[in-house]
Amino acid sequence: MTTTATPTTATAPAPPAFGLGRTVRLGVRRIGFELRQYFRAGDQVFFTFLFPTVMYLVFATIFTGDTGQGPNAVSMATYYLPGLIAGGILLAGVQGLSIEIAVEKSDGTLKRLGGTPISPVTYFIGKIGEVFVTAVLQIGLLIAVAVIVYRVELPTDAAAWGRFAWIFVLGLITCTLLGIAVSALPRSGKTSSAVVIPIVLLLQFISGVYISFAALPDWLQNVASVFPVKWIAQGMRSAILPDEYKAAEMGGAWDLGMVAVMLGVWLVAGLILSRLTFRWIRRDG
């Protein structure tokens, strides 16, 4: 009796999956790697990290004097500070991150990572950590320049700094998730700046970053109110400017409840969109 061997097809074993603890540890370790990559790119450091401070120097130098009347009038340097802080949060979370991810999709970095046991969670812990560290340094530099160069007087009460803290954290998380989602728009790494920067720049102009929000036409204020940057800037003004300045806002109030609601809505939208659009490689790759 003869025995016929049945041919079998060898399959490569799937890479082992890491547990949650190791996934988080690797993600935390990756933050240092991401930061080194970030600061080695000179153009990125200038156009993302230093850009809010450079624009603040330009505006605070050109536009001098005080805005408003009475004992609570503030200098133009003080008035521009909250908007530029909001712009810095947008640049760190949306512009910087979306361009980084688009480039890494295009140059094969994400494809190579997809062939390793590293999960997207590890990758994004590194990216989110990079965004938070650079944003804190970026805003810290901006505030230091405002205080040292232009003698801006910062709030002294704990409530104002509490508002600053939660608006900063909520706004940065929201912009980070939106940055992940926006990274799906560019068709290649070469076109990522051309796609992302005009969107970010337009949002800044209509959201009270470079131009007083009260000076915009009503219809443009309504358009800007759909997007999160306007609410971050409004929240930052509530933390830094005297309470009398709320009269210039839509509705004549800081409306911090709506700030929290709108940022929360965009946070959820960013989470859903980033989950739906992110792939280790492009669908057409």
Q: Please, how many domains?
A: 1
Radius of gyration of CA atoms, rounded to a whole number: 23 Å
Main sheet: strand order:
1-2
Percentage of residues assigned to helices = 55-70%
Low-pLDDT segments, ≥5 res: 1-14
Care to count the β-strands?
A: 2
Helix and strand sequence: HHEEHHHHHHHH
Structure description:
Helices cover 67% and strands 1% of the residues. It is mainly α. It has one domain (20-65, 73-277). The chain has a two-stranded antiparallel ribbon with strand order 1-2. Helix 3 (76-106) packs parallel to helix 6 and helix 3 runs antiparallel to helix 9 (228-240).
Structure in a nutshell:
The chain has 285 residues and is mostly helical. 67% of the residues lie in helices and 1% in strands.
Main features:
single chain; 285 residues; mainly alpha; two-stranded antiparallel ribbon; 10 helices; 67% helix; elongated; disordered N terminus
Write the layout of secondary structure elements.
Layout: H1 20-40, H2 42-62, E1 66-67, E2 74-75, H3 76-106, H4 109-114, H5 120-150, H6 158-182, H7 192-206, H8 218-224, H9 228-240, H10 256-277
